[in-house]
Amino acid sequence: MNPRNLTKDLRVNNVVLRRAESQDADKINEVLQQAFRGLEGRGYSTQAIETAIVDAEEIKKRISLGAHVIVAEFRNEIVGTVTGFEEHKSMHVCSLAVHPKYQNCGVARQLMLHLEKIAHQKCCQKLFLCTAWAMKEAIRLYESLGFVKEGCLRNHFYGEDFIVFSKLILRSPKKGQRARKVAEPLIKCL
Questions:
Q1: Which CATH architecture group holds 3-168?
Q2: What is the pLDDT of residues 10-28, one digit of tens each?
Q3: Class of residue 57 by CB neighbours under 10 A (exposed 0-12, middle 13-18, buried 19+)
Q4: Of 21, 90, 10, 87, whose CA–CA distance to 59 is shortest?
Q5: What does the domain layout of the chain look like in residue ranges?
Q6: In whole angstroms, how far apart are CA 151 and each of 86, 130, 143, 189?
Q7: What is the pLDDT of residues 99-127, one digit of tens each?
Q8: Where is pLDDT greater, at 3 or 27?
Q9: What one-character-per-residue DSSP string does the chain give?
């Protein structure tokens, strides 16, 4: 199949998003390895890459503890994943990864929108995440989804500078209430 048809297939609802099960852990780990290994030599340290590749046992633990581990399947193959942890009425987003063969086809966008829907259902007030400056494609995705830079963590992750992104989850005001104004980023990162 040529790449143009693959992109079309991935964007016309042929991707199934579902909650991960324990038996998916090895495949999720494989996706993480494939996605993050491609960052070597792009300003992301080897130690940071190794840490970002969550092992199968940790994935199983996340699933058993109730984290929102989501997988994207295409033709019965896991091609992407994201995890959300509920923390104090917020959803902490981590481990977003798409197998390189399926990147730039909208899979990460679908995963993020699905996690946002879960956060909304769980009455979370916002989603937040941290990412390295070297993750240019991911940063473009987050900004296109309405995330704003909220802060910077200098020398935070094995020497990597991280950016904190967040997105408020807007709810319709109840009868008689005024709509909340969307907050601006607290800190502007250059």
A1: 3-Layer(aba) Sandwich (3.40)
A2: 554 689 999 999 999 999 9
A3: exposed
A4: 21
A5: 3-168
A6: 20, 9, 14, 7
A7: 999 999 999 999 999 999 999 999 999 99
A8: 27
A9: --HHHHHHHHHTT-EEEEE--GGGHHHHHHHHHHHHHTTTTTT--HHHHHHHS--HHHHHHHHHTT-EEEEEEETTEEEEEEEEEEETTEEEEEEEEE-GGGTTTTHHHHHHHHHHHHHHHTT-SEEEEEEETT-HHHHHHHHHTT-EEEEEEEEEETTEEEEEEEEE---PPPTTPPPPPPPPPSS---
How far is the CA of 135 from the CAs of 26, 29, 108, in angstroms? 24, 19, 13
Q: Record the tokens describing residue 11, joined without a space.
A: 């964007």
pLDDT, tens digit, for every residue of 57-79? 999 999 999 999 999 999 999 99
154-175: b or e for each residue (b if 16 or more CB lie within 10 Å)?
eeebeebebbbbbbbbeeeeee
Apex 106 CA angle, 14 and 47, nearest 5:
120
Say which residue the tokens 């929108």 belong to: 113
Residues 6+ apart with CB under 8 A from 187: 149, 150, 151, 152
